[in-house]
Amino acid sequence: MDMDQRNRQMEADDLGFIWHPFTQMKDYMKEKPLIIEKGNGVYLWDIYGNKYIDGISSLWVTTHGHGRREIDEAIIEQIGKISHSTLLGLSHPSAIVLARNLANVAPEGLSKVFYSDNGSCAVEIGLKMAFQYWLQSSKGKNSKKKIISFTNAYHGDTLGAVSVGGIDLFHEIYSPLLFESIKAPSPYCYRCHLGKTYPACRLECLGRLEEVVSEHHEQTAALIIEPLVQGAAGMLVSPPGYLKGVRALCSKYGILMIADEVAVGFGRTGRLFACEHEQVIPDILILGKGITGGYLPLAVTMATEEIFNGFLGEFDELKTFYHGHTYTGNPLACAAAIASLDLFRNDRTLERMMENIERLRQGLRRFRDLKHVGDVRQMGFMVGIELVSDKDTKTPFPAGEKTGIKVILEARKRGLILRPLGDVIVLMPILNTDAGALDALIRITYEAIQTVTEA
């Protein structure tokens, strides 16, 4: 079979056998599929040899670039020892070293590491930890069984994670299957539900959150939040001081704070963890996506010593945390994560990002002059460009026009891979993207938006 035959067979088999996530397959099957075969640095190549900039870090996970020698070698070395061993009652060196390293770099006091293999599961673990902690607490607070979560929130696709989600498009259809959570309004400054403008608003949204917390805190085990950026909602960036205020409310009213940093952790916001921007220490920290540098599935739920101690007891007291996964703490994934953390230090990744974060900010300024760009939101290397049909009224495009999809397909023609969130165009460069590739990413995105929206 020659290469052309192979490629055509690949395309036919993709359309014939794969059900793609978050994809309307009726539309997908009308087009020729894009099949990525290779990656190096910040670039990807399809089966025909066409080259693309990876503008979304392969769905927000690739951290130091594709094909990083240091991570490759760490995985190969681990394969030479063992590829998998359970953590249920046993341990292994890679899990131990990674847990210690995470405890050393995480916000102070988060010293206990519980492994899983994806962000949704890590969120479920955090919710269950908070619930069980209060249920068996010596503080006599076993009435605390509810979770406060936010509108526009996204914490994953398993049913517990969906229960604390707040995006109707993704979550409403499953409502009969979910547990009830207490919803608080989230800050969305471009479309403020209070009709206010920052900073004149003086964070009135935080005051509304306190009303919810004050009313429900006696029944609430925890509040879960995506620190600084609600990613899947369209890169909604919270105003400065909001996160710190949330931490203060949790402390004031005696509920646990769960920080879901699956999307915002490991450098995406310009700090290793988003909570660091406002010196916030959560009680439970959820990490995933970029933890292995984008190589292998791994996630962790980190907790304080106080929470951990709440599960200690005699066997017949039944205080054990009855949760685990077959591939929990997989040695290959842990080895990749150790190497990725080493690269943050050895490459001075966060320090070197600062210049390009500013370069990105400056490059985005002209987008605001485009007729159909309503808002541009940036936190570090996380960007959301919201497209609207009418700038004055902030009226969205009709969903059936698929404007966001048209923009990313136009960008693809020009050598850039993006993925929209509705009509929000997301930019998520790999952390060590060089100035030339970053400039190209900005230019192609601008041209694609201009071509599609002004056609």
What does this structure look like?
The protein is of the alpha/beta class. The chain has two domains: 34-64 and 351-453, Aspartate Aminotransferase, domain 1 (Alpha-Beta Complex); 71-346, Aspartate Aminotransferase, domain 2 (3-Layer(aba) Sandwich), CATH 3.40.640. It is built from 15 helices and 17 strands. The strands form four sheets. Strands 4-12-11-10-7-5-6 form a seven-stranded mixed β-sheet, sandwiched between helices. It has a four-stranded mixed β-sheet with strand order 1-2-3-15. The radius of gyration is 22 Å and the shape is globular. The mean pLDDT is 96.
Number of DSSP strand runs:
17
Task: Round the Cα radius of gyration to an integer and report it.
Answer: 22 Å
Strand content: 15-25%
- Overall shape: it is globular
Number of discrete domains:
2
The CATH superfamily of the largest domain is: Type I PLP-dependent aspartate aminotransferase-like (Major domain)
Measure the end-to-end span.
42 Å
Query: How would a textbook summarize the main sheet?
Result: 7 strands, mixed
* CATH architecture designation of the largest domain: 3-Layer(aba) Sandwich
Residue share in helix: 25-40%
